[in-house]
Prior knowledge:
By secondary structure, this protein is α/β, with parallel strands linked by helices. Helix content is 37%, strand content 17%. Helix 2 (46-55) packs parallel to helix 3, helix 4 runs parallel beside helix 5 (139-149) and helix 8 runs parallel beside helix 9.
Amino acid sequence: MRFLLSLAAMCFASTYSLCADPIADSNRINGVAIGCQAYSFRLFTLTEAIEKTAASGSKVIELYPGQKISKDNPKGFSHASSDEERKYVKEKLKDAGLIAVAYGVVGLSKNEEENRKVFEFAKDMGIRVINSEPSADSFDTIEKFVKEYDIKVGIHNHPMRKNDPNYKHWDPNWVLEMVKDRDVRMGACADTGHWIRSGLNPVECLKILKGRVVSSHLKDLGKELHDLPFGTGNADIAAILAEFKSQGMNGPVSIEYEHNWETSLPEITECVNFVKKWNPGK
């Protein structure tokens, strides 16, 4: 009984850990599970995206629904993919020395049957976090699956929509209000670039969400509001990484680079190298 109580205490000691398998240190850079969102390579196949992610120096990747699997198989890879297609992708990941740690942005809703397909896929692929922008009335249903599958859900934010006041995901206060009384595996997928586009300070947003950030789409933007290599824009990536560390956020951090689509690999590699050189002791 004492052992069971100790185990329970360990599982609930950290907001971020629980009993889910953590991302291994060997798949981290400077303690950060930094890698590419495959959407950065949306003009290429998933096979090519995996190869490019590995070439950037990353050890993890976030998949998204719909990317063509390969030049020989133009079907979009998703939670609807066959066992054979999943096996192919797993083998390509293994060959590249990568693990898939996140999946999104993907729809989750009140439809339990459709949600289960996403969670089953994530479990099969070893994915730790599903990133989504669900409607407010679907959170109860999603929470059931978070508990059942022990997979986190990150509420992703796109920019504020001036013509759509019903879109609240951009606001970290709204996200916190939606998740604060729920299972701690429900939190935010912090898209720093979209916060900047909404006129928000990413570090201040992270502080609002303290303890409830489960993943991130990490971006640095310049005055023209497009992606730049980390450390060359206005996002203060070092301060963001420091805030992640301060909060104990150990989930996946995805470089979602949406600029120079066909030739972005050198710039994405600069982002990875920034994290390699970052001094977490400061």
